[in-house]
Write the structure tokens for this entry.
Amino acid sequence: MPRPPTSRPVRLWAIRGALGIAVLAALGLGRVISDAWPTGDSPEASFVRHGQVGDTVRLRYADVSVDRVAATGSLATVAGGARTSGIWLVVDLTVVARQRPLAAPRITITDASGRIFSPDNRSGYLFTPAQTGIPWHVRVPVEMPQGDLVGLVLRLTGNTEDNRRDDVASIDLGIDRSAAERLEQEHAAVEVRQGGPDPLTAAGVSS
Amino acid sequence: MTGWLRRNRWGLLVVPIAAAALVAGNAQRLHDYWWVKELRVVGASGQQGSWVHYSEPFSDALGASRLAVDLEVVDVRTVGSISDPIRGEVKVDTDGAMAYAVKLRFRADPKTVLIGCRMALLDAAGNRYDFDHQALGVAQDLYPCLQDGAEGYGNSIRVDTPRAYVDGPRPATWTTRPVVIVPAGVRITEVRLWWDDPGPRYCRVSVTPAG
């Protein structure tokens, strides 16, 4: 007597079960892959370009170099002056915008313990848009606590909002212990004016 | 299999439509964060010495209308100084930089809002040099397409407030002469004007500088 053929509903359920197992297996495999090779923040990470004082750091939107690092307790500004009980770190930068003007970069200083310091308007700092191709000399004063100058790093990003997958300059200001002591002894008032194509003169001017 | 296809034909037909709707439903992010962030669409183009008609959608608190203006790049030439209302002629003597003056002629309905225009010069390599009304510390007219004091109407920023003069009325035709700083030796091939900053529409005029 011939065996009766497998009934249609039974075959359908077998196919559905196999499909379900295949889907679960694919999900499991995906999980294994993403656990084994985690992406972390790499899809959004900036491209950090490192440099030292005097180096030209080439970014997508500009060439950037730190020309001079100075310090003072008081700034000479258009509005009069700005004093601090901490220290004004004064970084002279040259920025050459590539292909189009660089209007609003974000410039910050990071100390050895990871704290971030920004320039503010009280210091008279104002970044005027750097015209394409013209070396733009910018003086950036940043107010900081005394005694934390060793290992400072300047960071420049192309805009203030979104630097995912974009170039970021990270320039070591080269401040070791002896340089930090020397900087903390500097007291001559430093003149701050808005950036432009005219070269910056020596940082210290008599107050 | 054909049975399955036939049974699900309506559902299958809807799948691509649903997928398209899914993508389109989130496309405002492409528009807001990418499309309008650059000058991409040539709204009008022309040559130095001939009139170009440029228009683009415009809206303020009073509703949507169109911005429309005729413009002509009369002349582009290198100059050795920039006029400042207080300091007079200020020499451009910065190392590595030079200046181009662009003589522009406009005509537009005096009621059209034209504030907010921007201008850039481009060289053959596509480098863009933007007009900055405070370049080198010299005070030029704020907008490259308008004379200070004769800007005409500004935007209405409240539903119940009609448009008012920014400073004074604008004549039917007028000229401007913005000066742009560029690196020494650069030769300009294009003047670009736009209103909705940063984009995507702009007006492009091919030019041949004199002097």
